[in-house]
Amino acid sequence: MFEAGSPPKNIDRHRSTYDPGAPVSQPTTDHEAIRAQVRTRYAHAALEVTASCCGSGPTADTAVFGAALYAGQTDGLPLTAVQASLGCGNPLLVADLQPGERVLDLGSGGGIDVLLSARRVGPDGFVHGVDMTPEMLALARRNAAEAGATNVEFHEGTIEDLPLDDGTVDVVISNCVINLSADKQAVLHEAYRVLVPGGRFGVSDVVAEDHLSPAERLERGDFAGCIAGALTRSEYLTALAAAGFVDASVEFTHPVADAMHGAIIRATRPR
Questions:
Q1: Residue 100 included in any domain
Q2: I want to staple 214 with a disulfide (CB 3.0 to 4.6 A). Which of 20, 51, 157, 179 is the partner?
Q3: Residue 24 included in any domain
Q4: Secondary structure element (H or E) that encloses residue 231, with its range
Q5: Cα atoms found within 13 Å of the Cα of residue 108, Cβ hemisphere only
C-alpha cells in the first residue's frame, strides 16, 4: 500500500524565451529552445522526485498543483509515482474511463495518471503514456514495474508528433502539459488523429481568462511553470474546433494565479 512520505519539494523556476503572442496554430520561433527548457526542467523534477513542479516559486500551493489533487485515490501506487505528480488537476475525474478502453496520456511524466487509468480500464483495456524526457520515462517504467501494471506502455516522443497510429485510442487524457507546448494546435491535431471516431478528449490544464493578454500571462509566471504558455478559454475552444473536435467545453475549477485557473477541457471526435 502507499505510504506517506516527506512533504514534496519545489524546484527553481527558469525564465523562458517563449513568445506568448504567437498564433495558436503555429510554433514559436523558439520552439526548440522551449522544448529544451521544459525537458531540462522535468528531467530535474524526475531526478528530485518533486511533487509540485508547476506553480510560482518556492511558495507554490500543493493544493493547486501536485499530488493533493488525487486525495483518496493513490493507495497502492509507488510512492515515487505520487511524489512526481506535477499536474493541476485529476484527468480521471474528467475522462469517465470505462473497462476495456484504450487510453493515451499526453506528457505522462512519472506515470501516476497512466497507473490510475490502468486500474480503471482493467485487464481488457490498455494505457499508453508519451513523454519526451528520458528521466521521466525511466521513472514511469520503474513505477509501472513496482505497481505490477501489465496493461501499460510508455513511449518516448513529443505530444506534437505522437508515436501512435491513427485511430488507436478511445480516450486522450493529459494533466497540465498542453500549456507547455509551443505548438498547441499540432498537439490537438495529433490528439484528434489518434482517437477513434467518437473518441473523447478529457484533460486538465491551466487556462487564462479571456481578458488576459499574452504579456499579462507572462507577468504571472514563466513558461515551464505552466503559466506563460496557457491559452485563454476562447483560444482553447477555437483551437479544438480547428483540430476537428466538437462539443468542446472549458470549465474553470480552481485559481492558480490572478485570472488564471486550473480547468477541465472536454471535446469529442465526431463519429
A1: yes
A2: 20
A3: no
A4: strand 231-232
A5: 32
Closest CA to 205 of 54, 101, 99: 54
* Rounded distance between C-alpha atoms, residue 170 and residue 48, angstroms: 33
pLDDT for 102: 99
Q: Which three cell numbers stand for residue 137?
A: 520515462
pLDDT for position 221: 77
Q: In total, how many domains does the chain have?
A: 1
Domain assignment present for 22:
no
CB-count burial class (<10 Å; 0-12, 13-18, 19+) for 62: middle
- Asked whether residue 9 is assigned to any structural domain, the reply reads no
State the residue range of the domain holding 109.
31-268
267: its cell numbers: 471535446
Please state, in angstroms and rounded to a whole number, the distance separating the CA atoms of residues 186 and 181: 9
Q: For residue 226, is it left (φ>0), alpha (ψ between -120 and 50) or beta?
A: left
The CATH number covering residue 239 comes to 3.40.50.150
pTM of the model: 0.79
Model confidence over 21-37: pLDDT tens digits? 333 433 344 777 777 66
Please, which residues have CB within 8 angstroms of residue 256's CB and are 6 or more apart in sequence? Answer: 54, 55, 64, 65, 88, 206, 226, 227, 262
pLDDT tens for 35-70 read: 766 776 766 777 676 444 444 333 334 444 555 566
Residue from 264, 257, 255, 177 nearest 217 by CA: 257
State pLDDT tens for residues 97-138. Answer: 999 999 999 999 999 999 999 999 999 999 999 999 999 999
Residue 27 is classified by DSSP as -
Cβ pair 137, 154 in contact under 8 A: yes
Tell me how far apart the alpha carbons of residues 261 and 257 are, in angstroms, rounded to a whole number: 7
